[in-house]
Amino acid sequence: VGDDLLIGEPGRPLHGVGLAMVLGGPVLYLVGESLFRLRVTGAANVERLAVAAILVLLAPLGAQISALALSATIAALLGAQARPPAPDPFANARFVEGTAAEGRYDS
Fold this sequence. Notes:
Blueprint: H1 2-8, H2 16-41, H3 46-57, H4 59-62, H5 67-81, E1 94-96, E2 104-106
Antiparallel strand pairs: 1-2
Helix pairs in contact: 2-3, 3-5
């Protein structure tokens, strides 16, 4: 629905349900993915929650700017946080057995 509104009248601002759909979809995805990650790994993705908060804060501004500008802003925010995770320094390490005090990682 949000895409239909954008294609139909890209120069007009979105209001009401259209604005809620364009902003709400990415917000629900980011919050849901972060809660899933929290449940599975015990650590939430703070960056995604921050982007979701920024998108919620865009709601008042979204009624003032064109649908195209709002969609471009959303795409830029989502694209900025969608990068590969930092490499794990222990990904190729193996644990050398011994007591807890003597145990160490070798690469």
